[in-house]
Specification:
19% strand; globular
């Protein structure tokens, strides 16, 4: 049986891939098999992967909100759009977790021209210029022209003193970060010119997905117990990570939820953030 990808391409359906993605949500083998048995009668030739995802998401949510939240991480990153402003904020939080101080949305003067820098990150030994490439389509890939362009920006900014966090420093490295995928040419070019890459699935052992799962750094757009408008309100208030709700419960007051829904949201947040410790 063939299924239709988001791009319109027809590919052979792989049940093991589906089961693998369900397992990565935290669902037990019994739950995965139960969901598969529920999905199987509804499959048909040419079925879209979007329909398949929605069906799996609904069934996972019926078992546990946290399973559905983890399963929807890739979509949750796209929901940080449409322009990517909140994606930049979220990337700043990822680097803060790695013991960097960060600031977003900076306009800096290079040797030749000025540059809008998405994130500046600094620790004791490094100061990084970070370019965020947000994509809101499922199968988007970053072509080699993007790291080529970014390399010229890094070179134009290096060798200049900048003052951040009370220190005068120069940029030591550049990072190109995306919620999409990197082409092979992009990876090869970046490796040759010492540009650091971070994408949905690259580097394999330290990709965005791995970082999020390992440290519980889920964006609030992952949450399944509140609607889109409520997620947007949290983002506007500066609540970027699910763990922000746990650490600063005052964010919940802005949503005007019933006590029962508030408790359910808090429960989902705690289970989602703590899952990596289980």
């Amino acid at each position: 049986m063939k299924v239709k990808k988001y791009s319109g391409e027809l590919v052979e359906f792989d049940v093991n891939r589906l089961k693998g993605s369900l397992s990565k949500s935290g669902a037990t083998p019994d739950v995965v098999n139960e969901i598969w048995e529920s999905i199987k009668p509804s499959l048909y030739e040419g079925m879209s992967t979007r329909s398949l995802y929605k069906m799996a998401f609904r069934l996972l949510k019926s078992k546990a909100d946290v399973f559905a939240a983890r399963y929807s991480l890739k979509k949750a990153l796209r929901d940080l759009g449409p322009a990517g402003y909140y994606f930049e904020k979220w990337i700043g939080r990822l680097f803060e977790h790695a013991q960097y101080q960060t600031v977003t949305g900076q306009l800096l003067e290079g040797h030749a021209v000025s540059h809008e820098v998405d994130v500046v990150a600094q620790n004791e030994t490094e100061m990084l210029v970070i370019e965020c490439k947000f994509r809101n389509t499922v199968d988007a890939k970053i072509s080699v022209t993007t790291p080529m362009y970014f390399l010229s920006r890094v070179k134009d900014l290096q060798g200049i003193d900048f003052n951040f966090f009370g220190n005068t420093r120069q940029f030591t490295a550049g990072w190109l970060v995306t919620n999409a995928y990197m082409t092979t040419d992009s990876i090869q070019f970046a490796a040759y010119y010492n540009i650091n890459l971070l994408s949905w699935d690259y580097p394999v052992e330290n990709s965005i997905k791995r970082r999020v799962d390992n440290a519980g750094l889920y964006p609030v757009t992952c949450l399944t117990t509140i609607v889109k408008a409520e997620k947007e309100l949290l983002l506007q208030k500066g609540c970027i990570l699910v763990k922000d709700i746990i650490n600063q419960p005052a964010y919940l007051q802005a949503l005007n939820l019933t006590p029962r829904k508030q408790q359910r949201l808090l429960q989902e947040a705690i289970e989602l953030v703590n899952h990596h410790n289980q």
